[in-house]
Amino acid sequence: MRREPLTRKTFNGDVSKEHQSQSTVDVARLDKLVAQLKEYRQQTIQKVSRRNLAPIQEVDEVSNQSAQTVKRKNCDELSNQSVPKTRRKFYNRRKQQHDASSTSSSLQTLSSLQTWFSSSTSSSVQTISSSRTTTASRNMIHSYLAMALLISFIGLIWNDYFSLLSQDRRLSIDYGGGNCEWTGAGKVDLNSDPYGTLIASYPAGGMRLTWQMTEGAAGYMVGDDFFFNGRIGGLVKTEYPHPEGIWSYGKEMDQTILLIRNPRWNIPSYHTLLYELEYAHDYVVAYENVFNAFTTRGPMENWLKWRDYRFHDEVNVWGYYIDFWMENGPQFWHNLDYERAGQYPFRYNYESERPWPTDSHCLYDITEGCTPKAVVSYERMRDPDLGPEELRRIANVIRYKKGMDLMVSDEAINCIWLETWDHSPENRNDDRDVGGTLAGEYIFTIEQMEELVAKLTFYKHKYSTGDWELNLQARELVKNFHDYINEISGELAAMYASPQPTMA
């Protein structure tokens, strides 16, 4: 039957029987719709109350976050396999606390939406039930109701999206009370002009583990000095002034942290990295093989040849590297030696030629100079008992700096160290041991070991006397040098007792 056109009389309340009948039908349909929506909401609430916190499967690339997959999806498997019982218990307790908190938050959100929707639909039904309701007003109410439904579902999706985004922006979630969770890395907002921290180490000096731990505590990705196609800032790792490093960060850095490692293990590990990168002499070849890093160790023949050819230069550069940062940039290479390789026709400066010129980068390109605010060691960083304290020293240097507002609390550092050790996905030095030659098999000769002890003894004496005696970072160096000397001396004693046979 044809509907009558809307007239002024209709709006004045003259409702026909046909309109009244249609109004009754619409009210019934809306009552049914409201009942279905209430049932759906109730089912959702019950489902949320039963479920565990769903793992985040993938980080949204649009949000400019890291392409890290959140490791929570592997936690149940880890807790039953590779993680010790004490760690399993700690993780399960932490997971239950987080699930309870998340469930409570979700229930509150759904409950408030349900209350709002119920009141809105009840009001709409009462309006439609009125004898003065007309076709136009019903259509208007239908439109408002559809819009309300759309807004409510958009609101749920929007809330979930920003919930995931906020979790991704916080690399590690600090639950308080020393509890935490490792997720994935977030990029530094360079437009905010963050305070730059440069973490420097000799190649293969334990940087992989150190930047993983730093990201876990700071909440931001650590940039690489070799990724120089554009601006770089915030947290950056470098091998400069070693020939493997470049100063690609311009004037973005403000302070430094120095990472050291026992040369007994540092130098063989550096050769291993060179082998994995096919002894690359430029970044193009290095990039082509970058995914081979931390996967294998080279043939023993390669190591012996490289060791005997490069040993003296690498031992000297290992020491010069420490001097460079501790003494605010003494330049151990000649000005025309742009590669800082110290090879013919150039050479490295002799100790007798000091004082050496100061590198211009330390004078003009870094706010607080090259002298480190903290000295940390790879050996202590990887130690379960000493590692959290080394990480805490890095965190204290970065905390409260501009743009570094995601740093976890001090009480969460122990938890972050453990979580990062368990869940960080990138390969580390230990992964090279799987199915290959062990690190301990790459040895030095007795004469080379004696030279290592002599070099460390020289630096231990240097940084424990004179103006260095009261310097806090020098004390950290000396403490580690003492440990290195003891370790090498113990191995050297065993070599004296059972010398290696002379090679033909």
The strands making up the biggest β-sheet line up spatially as 4-5-3-6-7
The largest sheet, given as strand count, sense and whether it forms a barrel, is: 5 strands, parallel
Level of helix content?
Answer: 40-55%
Average pLDDT figure: 75
Number of H/I helices = 15
Q: Could you state the order of secondary-structure elements as H and E?
A: HHHHHEEEHEEEHHHHEHHHHH
- Please count the beta strands (DSSP E, at least 2 residues each): 7
Cα gyration radius (Å)? 32 Å
Characterize the overall form: globular
- Quaternary structure: single chain
Beta-strand residue fraction: 5-15%
Helix and strand composition category: mainly alpha
Structural account:
The protein has 504 residues and is mostly helical. Helices cover 51% and strands 6% of the residues. It has 15 helices and seven strands. It has helices at residues 8-11, 17-50, 75-80, 85-129, 135-169, 207-218, 263-276, 283-288, 300-326, 360-364, 378-381, 387-398, 413-423, 446-462, 472-497, and strands at residues 172-176, 179-182, 197-201, 223-224, 235-238, 255-260, 374-377. The strands form two sheets. A five-stranded parallel sheet has the order 4-5-3-6-7, sandwiched between helices.
Task: Report a brief summary of the structure.
With 504 residues, the protein is mainly alpha-helical. It has 15 helices and seven strands. It has helices at 8-11, 17-50, 75-80, 85-129, 135-169, 207-218, 263-276, 283-288, 300-326, 360-364, 378-381, 387-398, 413-423, 446-462, 472-497, and strands at 172-176, 179-182, 197-201, 223-224, 235-238, 255-260, 374-377.
